[in-house]
Design a protein that fits this description.
The complex is a heterodimer of chains A (496) and B (152).
Chain A (H helix, E strand, L loop, with lengths): L2 H12 L2 H19 L5 H8 L8 H26 L8 H12 L3 H35 L3 H12 L1 H5 L4 H15 L2 E2 L6 E2 L13 H19 L19 H23 L4 H16 L11 H17 L1 H7 L5 H12 L8 H4 L1 H29 L7 H20 L2 H19 L4 H24 L6 H4 L1 H27 L1
Antiparallel strand pairs in A: 1-2
Helix pairs in contact in A: 1-17, 2-3, 2-4, 2-17, 3-4, 3-15, 4-5, 4-6, 4-13, 4-15, 4-17, 5-6, 5-13, 6-11, 6-13, 6-14, 6-17, 7-20, 7-22, 9-20, 10-18, 10-19, 10-20, 11-12, 11-13, 12-13, 18-19
Chain B lengths: L4 H21 L13 H19 L6 H5 L5 H24 L1 H15 L5 H22 L12
Helix pairs in contact in B: 1-2, 4-5, 5-6
The chains are: A mainly alpha (496), B mainly alpha (152).
Chain lengths: 496, 152
């Protein structure tokens, strides 16, 4: 069966009343679960799998896919409203989304996030349809050296994530990297910095860091400012309407980042997080007014939101065409496929076109549902901000605690949450930026692994990073993207 | 000798880096590997040492707003410690008394402590929210939370 016939079959499946109904349920449940801190796409999918028993495989998988991108979408809401990113893919969303909400423009911020997600999601589904077969072969040619170089590229973001002192940003990043070395080393099984505690063997969970550094540290600031009347604006939701100027500002990042986000999403292991960070820094680099970033910039919010949704569709390329899950979430998706008796891989497209193309075709519909479901609901979501400050503080603490507890079922992690909340607050007091910390924490682990794997392959020869064409190119880009802003700083100083 | 704040902070970071390095040198080695588990930690430790020395010598580029953040009145420090203390009590009693009971108490006390005066609303929220969250997690999502003294 040719691709075109396959696509037609796919749309027939996806447009059936049953499929539309379940994709609607999927995106709705996904959005709700994604909004709760701690419950990201993995738990959302895991929760829904038992519900699909007895369903037609294609319909079941269409629903599960809906849960997946619905959850990514929902995660941005808590990032914007509460500065509490529940999943790593929405950390960068908080950088400009939360300042916007503080300025009384929460409605606008959520609307931008919804539209950017829609565009990112839809463009990448089109790309997925066109490129899935060809891209899968590129994705497997990405070996450890190329991954290492990709992580280095991600880390160059540190230079642009600093507000003021680059030294402090670097210190913050090194500290984040140090935290990730805690636990059992994956390659040798050696315990590092566990101090004999069994609770530290698995290392420190991402959520503990994200909710600690962002949500709990923000709680401390809220406690101090609880009587500050100048923050009254925070209670305003503001209009949802976007002006022509807003759309004009959004169009650039949306078109660039849907493509870039999709391509990064295709790479196994990279995914929505790296896509959103790279989107954020690349837009900041080329922006005419980079100083607006981090203070409620429309571009700064559009870029990561477009990219994380685009990457979500991108992640389906290796999953559907090779049967390789690129992330924890797609691994659970793979599990869902296997439970249904469907083996994703090169044969899926020809043997079960109604599933392969049906899932892809349903994503168009799912993305449209996400938009029409969420835009009218924004005023209700944003009501969160009308809650009196003392009550809001207690609720954010409780939600962060549940988020962490529901992942580890261990009170030790709750103490760690409190500890990292204190660290985050102290970092704020002394102007050490938190984003480089979390970026290094997310990338550090993968970076160390790919670095050591590469050197194991080359038997200790560092030249492997130069001789591998992909990694060489990525390292050159990283070097340039690190050096250019520094040159700018030096020039500015000379000018002064 | 320590004139600027950066110098004080840099000394603290220097000490942390040294401590980290001491532990990094104690990581046992593994014979059959090209890059051992201790390589990256050692690199990180030295990096932090170098960066903290840098910090000692650089001048601060902090804005007035950033400096103002550190002026916390003593009373407010007490508030922060109070909330921290409540959180610690929450963690200690979470698995003993159960999620619903402890969360209800926490929301009520913490909101009251921070100056929320609407008793009726406070009582209602601190009862309805934990109960509905508990039911949602345990019944719908099948994620168990500590039931504690509750019979179900």
């Amino acid at each position: 069966m040719g691709s075109l016939e396959g696509i037609i079959t796919g749309f027939q499946t996806a447009l059936s009343v049953e499929a539309i109904f379940f994709v609607l349920i999927g995106v709705f449940v996904g959005t709700i679960i994604g909004m709760l801190p701690g419950l990201g796409p993995i738990s959302a999918i895991a929760v829904m799998i038992p519900m699909t028993f007895g369903m037609e495989p294609s319909i079941a998988l269409i629903m599960i896919a809906g849960v997946y991108y619905g959850a990514i979408f929902g995660g941005s809401t808590s990032s914007i409203l509460l500065n509490a990113p529940g999943v790593s893919g929405t950390v960068a969303t908080a950088f400009d989304g939360y300042p916007m909400a503080q300025q009384g423009k929460a409605g606008k911020a959520l609307a931008i996030a919804a539209i950017a997600s829609f565009v990112g999601g839809t463009v990448s589904v089109i790309l997925l349809m066109l490129l899935a077969p060809a891209l899968s072969s590129v994705a497997i040619s990405f070996g450890p050296p190329a991954y290492f170089a990709l992580m280095v590229l991600g880390l160059t973001a540190i230079a642009s994530l600093s507000e003021g002192s680059t030294t402090k940003a670097l210190i913050s990043a090194v500290a984040g990297f140090m935290v990730v070395t805690i636990g059992i080393d994956a390659q040798t099984g050696t315990q590092r910095f566990t101090f004999g505690s069994i609770n530290l063997l698995d290392g420190i969970d991402f959520l503990v860091i994200a909710l600690g550094l962002f949500a709990i540290a923000e709680v401390c600031t809220l406690v101090l400012n609880r009587k500050d009347t100048s923050l009254k604006k925070f209670h305003n939701i503001g209009s949802l309407r976007l002006s022509k100027k807003d759309f004009k500002e959004m169009s650039g990042p949306m078109s660039r980042q849907s493509l870039l986000g999709f391509l990064i999403g295709v790479l196994p292991g990279a995914g929505a997080t790296i896509a959103s960070f790279i989107a954020y820094i690349s837009e900041k680099r080329i922006a005419k007014k980079p100083e607006e970033f981090g203070k409620g910039s429309v571009k700064g919010l559009t870029a990561p939101e477009t990219a994380n949704n685009a990457a979500t569709s991108g992640a389906f390329v290796p999953l559907l065409s090779l049967g390789i899950p690129g992330s924890g979430t797609t691994a659970v998706m793979l599990g869902a496929f296997l439970v249904m008796g469907v083996q994703p891989g090169p044969m899926l497209m020809t043997e079960r076109p109604e599933i392969f193309w049906g899932v892809i075709a349903s994503m168009y519909i799912g993305n449209i549902f996400l938009l029409i479901l969420n835009l009218p609901l924004i005023p209700y979501f944003a009501k969160v901000l009308k809650i009196p400050r003392p009550m809001l503080i207690s609720l954010v603490i409780v939600f962060s605690m549940i988020g962490v507890y529901a992942v580890s079922f261990n009170t030790f992690d709750l103490y760690m949450l409190l500890l990292f909340g204190a660290i985050g607050f102290i970092m704020r007091l002394f102007s050490f930026p938190a984003p480089p910390f979390i970026l290094a924490f997310i990338l550090g682990g993968m970076m160390e692994q790919s670095f050591r794997q590469s050197l194991t392959i080359s038997n200790g020869d560092l030249m492997i990073f130069i001789t591998n064409p992909i990694s060489c190119a990525l390292l050159i880009i990283s070097l340039l993207s690190f050096v250019f802003p520094l040159i700018g700083v030096v020039r500015k100083k000379k000018g002064n | 000798m320590l004139k600027t704040l950066n110098q004080k902070v840099s000394l603290v970071l220097f000490a942390i880096a040294l401590l980290y390095l001491i532990y990094a040198y104690q990581i046992p080695s593994f014979p059959y590997t090209v890059v051992d588990a201790d390589v990256i930690p050692k690199v990180l430790g030295y990096l932090l040492l170098i960066l903290s020395v840098f910090l000692f010598f650089i001048k601060d580029e902090e804005s007035e707003e950033q400096k103002a953040r550190r002026n916390i009145p003593k009373k407010e420090v007490g508030m922060l410690l109070g909330v921290g203390g409540l959180i610690i009590l929450y963690i200690i009693f979470l698995e003993i008394l159960g999620f619903v009971f402890v969360t209800a108490l926490f929301i009520f006390l913490c909101s009251r402590f921070l100056g929320y005066k609407n008793y009726l609303a406070n009582v209602l929220v601190s009862i309805i929210l934990p109960v509905s969250l508990y039911l949602m997690f345990t019944q719908l999502l099948r994620i168990s939370l500590p039931s504690g003294i509750l019979p179900f």
